[in-house]
Structure formats: C-alpha cells, structure tokens
Design goal:
Blueprint (H helix, E strand, L loop, with lengths): L1 H14 L3 H29 L7 H22 L5 H7 L2 H6 L4 H7 L7 H17 L6 H32 L4 H7 L15 H10 L3 H4 L1 H6 L15 H16 L8
C-alpha cells in the first residue's frame, strides 16, 4: 500500500505542474455539478414530487451516490487506461515491478480534477440534511457512512471488472463507458421511481440498488428495518469476487511485443 500512496502522490504532483489547467478542470467540475442540480431542482419545482419523493429526499440520494461515484472515479478510473497500456506494451513495465499490478495501475491514474465534483456533493449533502424533515437516529447516521463506503467499493469493483475484461478484448469495453459515465446518472434517483425491468437490472445484474434504494427505505421511514442500513456493505462480497476475477484474467495476458 505504501507504493500505491507514493504513486498517488507523484501523480497528483504531475497534474499540478500545470496549475492553471488543473484548477480550471476542478472549477469546471464544480460548475457542471451545480448546473445539473439546478435542473434537478427545476424538475421537482415543476412536478412537486416523483413517486412520493420530495426534492430534499432526492437530493440526499443524489449527494451520497455522487460522493461514492466521485471517490471511486478519483482513485479507480486509472483502470480505464489498461487498454492503452496493453496496446503500447507499457503494461510489461508494470509487470516487471515487484508490486501488485492493480495497485500500480490505479495509483498511476488518479483523477484529481474530480475534487471539484466531490466538494459540490459534500455541500449538497449538508444542504439535504438541513432541508429534510428526517428524524435522525444512530442507525440513520450510520447509514451516512455505510452508503458512500459501500458505493465506493461497488463502483471500484465495476471499474476493475471492465478492466479485467480488457485482458481479453485488448480494447476498452464500450459498455463500461456507458454504464460508468452517462448511464450512472440514473442512480441519482431512487431505484423505485423506474419501471420494473430497469429496477431488476439495477438490483440483480449491476447491484446499484444496494446503495441508492434499500438503505434509503429505512432513512425515509418507508420500512422499519435497521438491517437495511448495512445492506451497502454487501458490496464487499462483490469486490472480493471481482478481485478473484481480475487475478484469473490477468494470468492470460500476452504482451503485444511492442
């Protein structure tokens, strides 16, 4: 892990060599999120509520899911560069080092520009808590930790899953761009506002409902079951399976010879 944090430090230093560009990217992320939230607000101002969810509740879901996704993107998006590393033959250099391959790839691809989005999400989380009429207790406060923690683990697992498949395709998996990019926008709404087919996919295929549905049932007093607070931690099992899959796939890597 020491090597991983050293790679992160070096990567951040490299990005700040061009200070103006990096700061502009951070500010750009900040503004982009505010623009999205303004549209979010206007939608609820027009409709009043969506499937009995009011703006403050939807904002809480949005903020916690966005914190999860942004943190995973900051530390895990480096896996998206795996296809380029394979094509250029640069992955061989990583394999020659006596360090875990996955940690090297992730540590070399930290996206510091996403900090702007993270700051916005934390501010929105505070706003949602202040505006909501939720009767907070110890378990609901615990959920404010388990939801982003489980979400980070889940999103990292998905990055690693599509990265592992790259060992076979030697190219980026297009569905990963769709799912982890614009496709992730649907996670900013509770799963039960969508139709049954989409809800089934987001529960059993890509288990996003673990973080943006079940724990919120308890937080919003729709279901009386404190065990739902710990449902996001099931993503630990998901990540463990994906890491096994990564090891299996990486064994079949063959150099391009570049």
């Amino acid at each position: 892990m020491d090597v991983y944090f050293m790679l992160i430090k070096q990567n951040i230093k490299a990005q700040f060599e061009y200070n103006i560009s990096t700061y502009l990217l951070i500010v750009g992320q900040f503004i982009a999120q505010l623009t999205f939230v303004m549209g979010f607000f206007l939608l609820f101002k027009t409709l009043g509520s969506i499937n009995r969810y009011v703006f403050s509740q939807a904002l809480l879901v949005y903020a916690l899911v966005n914190i999860s996704y942004t943190c995973a993107e900051i530390f895990g998006k480096g896996v998206n560069s795996l296809a380029e590393l394979i094509r250029r033959g640069s992955l061989d250099i990583y394999l020659m080092r006596p360090q875990p391959l996955l940690l090297q790839i992730m540590g070399s691809g930290v996206e510091i520009s996403r900090v702007g989005r993270l700051i916005t999400s934390i501010g929105l989380l505070i706003m949602a808590i202040v505006r909501s009429s939720i009767q907070w207790n110890i378990f609901k406060l615990i959920a404010l930790v388990t939801i982003p923690l489980g979400g980070i683990i889940l999103f990292l697992g998905l990055y690693i899953l599509f990265g592992a498949l790259t060992f076979y395709s030697v190219n980026s998996i297009n569905i990963s761009i769709l799912l982890m990019g614009s496709g992730s926008d649907c996670l900013h709404y509770p799963v039960d506002v969508m139709n049954k087919a989409v809800r089934a996919v987001l529960t059993y295929v890509f288990p996003f409902a673990l973080i943006n549905y079940y724990p919120f049932l308890y937080i919003f007093d729709k279901v009386n079951g404190v065990e739902l607070v710990f449902v996001p931690l099931i993503s630990i099992v998901f990540l463990a399976v994906i890491l096994k899959f990564w090891k299996f796939c990486s064994r079949y890597y063959s150099s391009t010879g570049s």
